[in-house]
Amino acid sequence: MVTIPQAVLAAPIAPGETALPEAKRFTREVLTAWAVMSVSARAERLVEELLADRTGEPVELAWIHCGQSIRLEVREKPKERTPASPAGASEWGEAYGPGVRARWATIDLPEEERAPEAGEERAAEARHGAGWLGFLADASDLLAGTLDPDMVPAIIAQVVVPRLATWCAVHTAEHAGGPLRLAYVWHADETQLDRLRRRLSDLPEAGADGPELQQIGEWQTLAFPLTARGRRLGVMRLGRRDTFPEEIVQIAEDLSRRAALSMDNARLYARQAAAKLALQRSLLPPELPVIPGLDFHVIYEPAGEDNEVGGDFYDLFPVGDGAWRFAIGDVCGTGPEAAAVTGLARHTLRLLAREGYGVAAVVGRLNQAILEEGERARFLTLLHGEIASGENGVDLTLLSAGHPEPLRLRPDGTVEPVATPQTLLGIFPEADYAAERVHLDPGDVLLAVTDGVTERRSGSRLLDDDGGLARLLADCAGLSARAVAERIRRAVQEFAAEPSTDDVAILALRVP
């Protein structure tokens, strides 16, 4: 009797040390797809024997499901060899074709894992079904490739149609277990979409325990619950005019589980991203004020593609009686712990300043507040100051706690530091801080930056080596505050080819 192969899965195996591990991995995938893992140990031994002396040359590994047994073939170019009987094989031998020599061996399957005898029609279906392993792998890749929960239903429907069904509709619940709404529908014939949507609106809600079969007009429909981690997220409904083959039902059920997990992951990611964005935005100051007699500009660029706020922060706010306070700081570290210190610093500065505390008193109390955070505490560098209108210019009260020194630019291009460095915050409880007074004449510019500017690296060089920042600022004489800040930002970007890995904050104050 001629045995008709019910499925064939083959893969090229490149020569080298990875040949045997790759062949075993492929074998395990095949046995899993065919649900015959009980013979995996025997199958891997066959792979070892048939590839034992062939890891130095390319071969093709083919597994063939014959219903009552599975057969392994190792195909290569013909060579003179004396065949040996592989251990664990029910039958073995060699076969030759045009330019190909195949050494083969078969393993008899246990009774409960044997497939029924296949006629021509069944064999044709099985040969077609051999591609389902790749189909599910491709579908999984597509689903895993998006973290947008609104995209997942569209991917599900377009994966299903027309491979598994004529049309597919995905209903989702805004909250797990809540009422369903039609999220996406797709039809092999796009002209039928509107008609299909109207019919779907009249369908009863599908159950949540497993595939549910319904006959709706000329359509047979199958509804699969989308359930992940014990939560019902929606329903995937498939429709076709003929009966769903058992193989299609199994593939669709497997796909529904993968789709539900992908949808749940996307929703979890979206919730985390929304919470992160809300936290980040809470750390940014509200709209900056207008300060009479002062031109100012702020640039803030957190490192990382998905960050709106990093460890650096800035603020500029009124405190009454024609006075304003400003701050620019840098929290050591990243993540939620650094964000917590950023929020503590910004809100403490505002609260104490509006309660009438002077610059030095505010910084001292902020130092104590950070230390009281215990293990959650983070070091903080800070430049804090008060702005007040003075005679023929602006009076500043400044305190620099471990922060890169602020620089004053004179109209003639002279640049000088204007604050004495003091201890950064979050280290010594007994630290004593003192503020300094600085006067800005008309045309003067005060530049304050974080170490994302001064420590911008290109190879072994830093931007501020040998007074690099001061030289950049000296070339900005006569420019507006915005132009000064933008020129410094551009210099930071151009200093090295690779993107910056540190946050950048720049504050420029100029007396017109």
UniProtKB/TrEMBL annotation:
Keywords: Hydrolase. Residues 75-94 are annotated as: Disordered. The keyword Hydrolase applies. SMART domains: PP2C_SIG. Residues 294-511 form the PPM-type phosphatase domain. One of its GO terms (molecular function) is phosphatase activity. InterPro entries: Bact_Sigma-Reg, GAF-like_dom_sf, PPM-type-like_dom_sf, PPM-type_phosphatase-like_dom. This is Protein serine/threonine phosphatase. It comes from Thermobispora bispora (strain ATCC 19993 / DSM 43833 / CBS 139.67 / JCM 10125 / KCTC 9307 / NBRC 14880 / R51).
